[in-house]
Design brief:
266 residues; alpha/beta; Purple Acid Phosphatase, chain A, domain 2; 6-stranded mixed β-sheet; 5-stranded mixed β-sheet; 7 helices; 13 strands; 21% strand; globular
Length: 266
């Protein structure tokens, strides 16, 4: 068995040093083997600082993906370049965007990618939603509606392509696949106050490209099992997509990070 802590949308930049240390101590005290971090760790200027604090404070293996907030006040390209160099020298930090299949146990494998709200669900062109992403991430600033849709679809496809690439190995060697991602991959799992987002919010709070890859894989492998861990919406819940595919969506409140769940897997 392995004990895995799952956290998401922790936004550590909102914490005082005292509260940060208290949260890290709480994680360390869980008697777990690994930590799964589902994105929105901090913001671009402070991301590596907080990852280093986690690395130094925890003896756990830390597996993580990024979220949209991790690129705020920076650029996607620069954050990823700096992060790739940083984790290369780390002994317990593993960025799943840059990794293949992680064999957690004899039966359970871990894969992951951040995903992105890819504009394929809901009504993108009619939506009134203006995320801070479009003001604070270099690649998404000052784009026309059409160009913005093209960009977020490309980001969504990037995550889907990564998962499609690593899934065959994971499915061939494991009975249970855990997928760590930031953006919910299904409409039903894009939860806020217990309900899926409406047509104006869904374009930015669900990644259809990722969902299609995951659902097709589990339809083709009915005797395998998949658990998806996501966040982004700050609304918690559990959604059964297929008999062998379940999605947990983490709740979150700025300034009050919590442990979503401690899993025990064979």
């Amino acid at each position: 068995m392995i004990r895995a802590i799952w956290i998401n949308d922790i936004h550590l930049e909102f914490l005082s040093n005292e509260n940060l240390q208290s949260f890290l101590s709480e994680l360390q005290q869980q008697d777990a083997d690994c930590l799964l971090v589902g994105g929105d760790i901090a913001q671009a200027p402070s991301l590596l600082y907080y990852l280093k604090k986690m690395q130094e404070s925890l003896t756990l293996q830390i597996y993580f993906v990024l979220g949209n907030h991790d690129y705020y006040f920076g650029s996607i390209e620069k954050v990823r370049t700096n992060l790739k160099e940083f984790v290369h020298t780390s002994h317990n930090l593993f960025w799943l965007h840059n990794s293949g299949v992680v064999k957690l146990t004899e039966k359970t494998a871990l894969i992951g990618h951040e995903g992105w709200g890819d504009g394929r669900l809901g009504e993108f062109y009619q939506s009134h939603v203006q995320l801070n992403d479009f003001k604070l991430i270099a690649e998404l600033k000052r784009l026309s509606k059409k160009r913005l849709l093209q960009k977020i679809q490309t980001l969504g496809e990037e995550g889907a392509s990564h998962l499609k690439k690593v899934l065959p190995e994971a499915l061939s060697n494991s009975e249970h696949i855990v997928v760590l991602t930031h953006v919910p991959p299904f409409r039903e799992a894009s939860l806020y106050k217990g309900k899926p987002g409406n047509a104006h919010w869904l374009p930015f709070f669900a990644c259809k490209a990722t969902g299609t890859v995951l659902k097709n894989a589990m339809i083709q492998h009915p005797h395998k099992k998949m658990t998806v861990l996501c966040g982004h919406t700050h609304g918690g819940g559990k959604t059964q997509i297929l008999p062998n595919l379940i999605v947990y969506t983490g709740a979150a409140v700025y300034g009050s990070p919590v442990i979503q769940k401690v899993f025990e897997w064979e």
